Amino acid sequence: QCKFLPRYPFAKPNVESDQSEFAVGTSWEYRCLPGYSKKSFFITCLETSKWSDAQQFCKRKSCMNPRELLHGSVFIPKGIELGSTITYSCNKGYRLIGDSSATCIILDNTVIWDKNMPFCESIPCESPPAISNGDFYSSSGDTFYYGIVVTYHCNVGPNGEKLFDLVGEKSIYCTSEDNQVGVWSSPPPQCIPQVKCPFPEIENGIMETGFKRSFFLNDTVMFKCKPGFTLKGSNIVWCQSNSEWNPPLPTCFRGCLPPPHIHHGNYNKRDKELFTIGQEVSYSCEPGYTLIGTNLVQCTSLGTWSHAAPKCEVKSCAAIPNQLPNGRVVPPPNLQLGAEVSFVCDPG
């Protein structure tokens, strides 16, 4: 015997029955619910005391295939049958207007999507910021949206002469951090009164490149010192918006800059920044290291040191005997400072 009539989410009996037992061989008619294809089918009580399978009879109806989303995409994870959900997303630079998902539902005996298809619009930006003594130009006219570039320029005199310097990013573009609201990539530049730096003259120095009568914003100058003089500071300087040179102008002096530092060693007079001609410096090594080269170097009249800086080499221990009666010696890869040697006795 089979027990009560089975309940299905996709069909119901043509005739309801509250019988608790049905004889083997009994057939019962079911009809598919709205939203499922096929009208009716029969199930039978089998000799196994189970009702025959009804799963294959009622197939879910499908909603219409969604249209392509302009400037976006439709994601269909599990088909378009009744109960399925699809999601929408927009390409970079566009934002979704409408619902981001839709579900296939049944309405008045037909299957339809429960939400209208959204659309993707370009992410807009507000008008670019206005600047004093200048203006901006955009190829898109008065509309500003994702990716649009605007370029700023400073006002000029009646005859086209330059009156202002542009400081900051000349061009800015419309972008977005959350793919919803448009923002400008950086603050606008400024138009400041024309910058003029003082003539870059240094004692005992020569202007190597960049010589002009007047120096304006972002002009660069490269210096070298006259023979017998040493340059202290940067040999290249830029004219900055505050009408000052940056880095500061270098100086040329008779003497030497500090000698080079060496690994595992040092020299005396470390606190001095400049050394006069004839001054000597003495190098020494840390304990466990041997000085290779001359330890004394002298500042010459050319502004260079008389000898190359020495080196500090790690000391080696004396060779150890490789014979150990009734045992063996385990040597290290090298015999430098800090190396360890192991002695092992034979068994017994």
Automatic annotation (TrEMBL):
The entry's cellular-component GO terms read:
membrane
Q: Which superkingdom, per the lineage?
A: Eukaryota
**Which InterPro entries does the protein's record reference?**
Compl-Cell_Adhes-Reg, Sushi/SCR/CCP_sf, Sushi_SCR_CCP_dom
Classification via Gene3D superfamilies = Complement Module, domain 1
Give compartment(s). Answer: Membrane
The biological processes this protein is annotated with in GO are:
female pregnancy; negative regulation of complement activation
Tell me the keywords, alphabetical order.
Answer: Disulfide bond, Glycoprotein, Membrane, Pregnancy, Repeat, Signal, Sushi
Q: Which residues form the Sushi domain?
A: 1-60, 61-122, 123-193, 195-252, 254-314
Could you give the subunit structure recorded for this chain?
Answer: Interacts with C3b.
Q: Which family does it belong to?
A: Belongs to the receptors of complement activation (RCA) family.
Name used for this protein in its record: Complement component receptor 1-like protein
